[in-house]
Design goal:
Two copies of one chain form a homodimer. The first copy, chain A, is built from ten helices and 15 strands. Strand 3 of chain A pairs parallel with strand 8 of chain B, so a sheet runs across the interface.
Amino acid sequence: MILTVTPNAALDDTYEVPDARFGEVNRVAAVHRRPGGKGVNVARVLHGLGHEVVATGLAGGAAGRQIEEGLAALGVPAAFTPVAGESRRTVTVVGAEVTMFCEPGPTVTAAEWAAFLARYETLARDAAVVVLSGSLPPGVPPDAYARLTRLAPGPVILDADGEALRLGLAGRPAVVKPNAEELARVSGTGDTAAGIRALRAAGARTVVASLGAGGVVADTPGGALRAALDRPVPGNPTGAGDALAAGLAAGLAVDRPWPDLLRNAVALAACAVRSPVAGEIDAAAVPALLPHVSVRAEEDHAARPHE
Amino acid sequence: MILTVTPNAALDDTYEVPDARFGEVNRVAAVHRRPGGKGVNVARVLHGLGHEVVATGLAGGAAGRQIEEGLAALGVPAAFTPVAGESRRTVTVVGAEVTMFCEPGPTVTAAEWAAFLARYETLARDAAVVVLSGSLPPGVPPDAYARLTRLAPGPVILDADGEALRLGLAGRPAVVKPNAEELARVSGTGDTAAGIRALRAAGARTVVASLGAGGVVADTPGGALRAALDRPVPGNPTGAGDALAAGLAAGLAVDRPWPDLLRNAVALAACAVRSPVAGEIDAAAVPALLPHVSVRAEEDHAARPHE
């Protein structure tokens, strides 16, 4: 079983407003409501691919109920710890432009966090891989991801940003999956290679950096690899990072060799980009993409962006 | 008891986003969530003034639950008929500008509407006044307000727009409360007097037109009156119309003479404008405003806007 952890689960609303105008009253033409938060998205992709998965995390209030009802409707097994606060909602207005409004997460009490930890320890024991994803709601210790990594007997994939990522590295996760912006924040420069070195020095065993059209650079104990499509895929990059994380988890769960594992993960991310609905994957389209993913040894200098 | 009817109740969210930007990801600094829809707002004002009130209408889904929980928390008695659909939410983004996004209402089935009618008939029997407010959700007959007016033994105040107002007039409501824009749509011109004549010809016994800073013009069977403040009140006009409707209902319930009734209703609307929170009233401030409301006989020509 693959365990995904979403400490700050969200209810994601998409509002179709073809002629949205700021400073005015806008009628919403259509509303799409779905459970979200990065770990929940990873669980949905893995479930769609037929993997055994459990989505855990913290959820509360009316939005929390809707997140759990939404996962049940999708058939994704979920085991969230209830919190008294209201889980956050995100509202994405899709018109000529795409505008997103993100509510703050609920404040988690020490008792709620302790209850989650106890449940997590049990779940992690049965997990071939654990995926830790996204932001930490207020009240959760900033080094939570280090603690959760240490508590997991199996390999852990950490997909976070800022302080949650920085402090989480102390737990020595098997894989850290930053994108170019997150790497730049880590290194304080635009230098991808410097960011990767900093993450490994801080505790990451392997760093898989997603560089958009540049594919991914994986810096593993066995050397550096780059996996990329032979041509760019047009579409919506929303959710591609979560699909990549799902691909990495699926590969680690069966201990695939890195080149093979990366080829699959990149093909999966490409499917997410091509999908008309953000984050939804047509699993049947993956095999056709695999031959278009090249995997080769990476020299350090090539790990810089825009090359 | 005063009965307020909100066929299309809403959950009103206000997002504080000081530096809101279209086309970007915006963090919401604070979320304010409250039950809404015009009739619900009228009930809240009446409850705040110490009147016996019952809020009814149709509500469903997670938003419906939150609307009922919110009214319970405010101590406002509610008797909503459940619907399988999801009640609409509105999201108001308050930054440099104020932008509103209104979801469509739930589709109401014939059986749900029939269940509401049966409940309404019982509630209306005990009501000194019935207030019918706002839009009709999909599935509700467009002439619903005519039917609801005929079913009420006591006086009915109708506060609606467009087709719901036009078809509702056939029920001969005691009072119709349009604003200048609604009157313009009725008359097809900017002529307030023509709009008022059209509404009375179509069935309204009395028309109380709210003209913003121009106060209100009441065209009653006993003649026309204008009630206005001696000086404009600075503030937020949101909710002033619902406070005016609450004032009219409170006056009709005790059969106040029109001049006295209008003076109170206009003072109440002014309190709503002065309130820092849209739609919330400081009842204690009403008496001090009463001497500042002039009520005089209205000559027809003066009923034109911008005079």
